[in-house]
Design a protein that fits this description.
Length: 435
């Protein structure tokens, strides 16, 4: 049997809805051998063997992979990538889907990302990077309508303040330098505030070949009408009709240029490159890059993909990616996130979850678990802020949205909270976006 057709044992690192969506797709592959999730959640336990591993400890991950004859390690979240887990596994001879620590700096350092964007001629907000509050505040005052203040390092999505005034910007700058984000805030990027609809464009790459996935749009704010505090994401849909064909062409080209620049600079990028864009009047501009699949974007993008995901991720890890490995269905997908009351602030856990099987019985519905766990008796309990993502696929956006809410209403737990307006702007034009 040729090596590429042999069954592969796969270990997925992470415990969110994104990892559950990856595992569901891997589990459907005819080339899958054994499937492991570390640490996984209450949903992944039905598909894979959950294992308690320190996923940011490269030596521990590599030792486990060796011991269990893992062929491919798929890294879900950014922290293990920035910590160099992919490098340690590769050095031990294990194939990895996910960038090296150096390439993961595209997410791990906003200054590094901006430098790569400059080198690759990528449109982005005007910016400067600072190590002193005085200079940062002086630059912030140059922007009349406010600006955006970003801690340079990883802050779990909390390190960005979109400031409407110089005073607000100064407050954010001082908080950063006063240690609000620890080391991650020792360098601060101040940038121009852009406006327009946001759009995510994920691409898969083996370091040279780049295959763009479908567009998607997250809803980051906690409350309906896109207000309230930022969250990890409250819901998402795919594709994104407000992105024109020209916008998509440009976003795809941006991801390709960045992958080419990383290779040219000697740190080839392998894995999923997540481009976060704003569709401005001057065309798409990059807000950020992430070095991994988006969460919850993956929960609408992967279900729409027609491919053997083991083959595709293996091809990325071995420099053999071919665009013909991936096809798309014409359906729409909408995913609604069910959270614990209080999220993104403090919340209670350990609540009994009911109705998952009933929701999954609806044709076109998939339930992805995030903060869930099974207790010793096999009962499904809440174990996090974002608990469950309900994804629905249908031939039209309206049908997909309706089905997602129909399924979401069948699931229950004490304190269940959701936004009822996911996709409320999906059919708007750019001109009417902010009305
Ligand atoms: P980031 O983590 O850099 O993507 O920023 C988080 C969120 O802040 C983005 O999804 C945008 O909603 C907002 N944001 C970031 N940069 C800008 C910008 N230059 N102008 C306007 N909004 C921004
Ligand atoms: N949905 C935003 C992220 O994955 O960072």
């Amino acid at each position: 049997m040729c090596a590429s057709a042999a069954k592969k044992n796969v270990l997925v690192l992470g415990s969110g809805g994104r990892e559950h969506a990856i595992l569901v797709k891997l589990a459907a592959s005819p080339t899958l051998g054994e499937l492991w999730a570390a640490p996984g959640n209450g949903g992944t336990a039905n598909l894979a063997r959950n294992v308690d591993l320190a996923i940011e400890d490269g030596a521990a991950v590599a030792a486990f992979a060796k011991e269990h004859a893992i062929d491919l390690v798929v890294v879900g979240p950014e922290a293990p990538l920035v910590a160099g887990v992919a490098d340690v596994c590769r050095a031990a001879g294990i194939k990895v889907f996910g960038p090296s620590a150096q390439a993961a700096r595209l997410e791990g350092s906003k200054t590094f990302a901006k430098e790569v964007m400059e080198a690759a001629d990528v449109p982005t907000a005007r910016w400067e990077s600072f190590t002193s509050a005085e200079e940062a505040c002086a630059f912030a005052r140059e922007f009349e309508g406010g600006c955006v203040v970003k801690a340079d390092g990883l802050c779990g999505g909390k390190g960005v303040v979109v400031a409407s005034s110089a005073e607000e910007a100064e407050e954010a700058i001082r908080a950063c330098f006063d240690g609000a984000f620890g080391e991650a805030g020792a360098v601060v990027v101040v940038e121009e505030r852009l406006s327009g609809p946001e759009c995510s464009l994920l691409s898969l790459t083996d370091g040279s070949t780049v295959v763009a996935l479908a567009t998607s749009q997250d809803h980051k704010r906690a409350l309906e009408g896109d207000v309230g505090p930022n969250t990890g994401g409250m819901g998402v849909y795919s594709p994104v009709p407000v992105a024109s064909e020209a916008d998509v062409t440009e976003m795809v080209a941006v991801n390709e240029r960045v992958v080419a620049e990383m290779a040219r600079a000697g740190s080839p990028y392998v894995g999923c490159l997540y481009g976060g864009f704003m569709l401005t009047e001057e065309g798409p501009k990059v807000l950020e890059f992430n070095c991994r699949f988006g969460d919850p974007e993956t929960q609408v993008v992967l279900p729409r993909m027609d491919c053997d995901l083991v083959e595709v991720l293996w091809a990325c890890a071995t420099g053999t990616l071919d665009p013909s490995m991936i096809r798309w269905d014409s359906d729409w997908a909408v995913s609604v996130v069910l959270t614990s009351a209080g999220y993104p602030g403090s919340y209670e856990t350990g609540k009994l979850i009911t109705g998952v099987e009933e929701a999954e019985a609806l044709p076109g519905v998939t339930v992805f678990h995030a903060g869930t766990k099974l207790d010793a008796a096999g009962a499904l309990l809440t174990a996090g802020g974002r608990v469950i993502d309900v994804t629905a696929q249908a031939p039209s956006f309206e049908e997909a949205r309706e089905l997602a809410y129909q399924a979401a209403d069948l699931i229950d737990f004490e304190g269940k909270t959701l936004r009822r307006d996911i996709g409320h702007r999906a059919m708007r034009s750019k001109e009417a976006w902010d009305e």
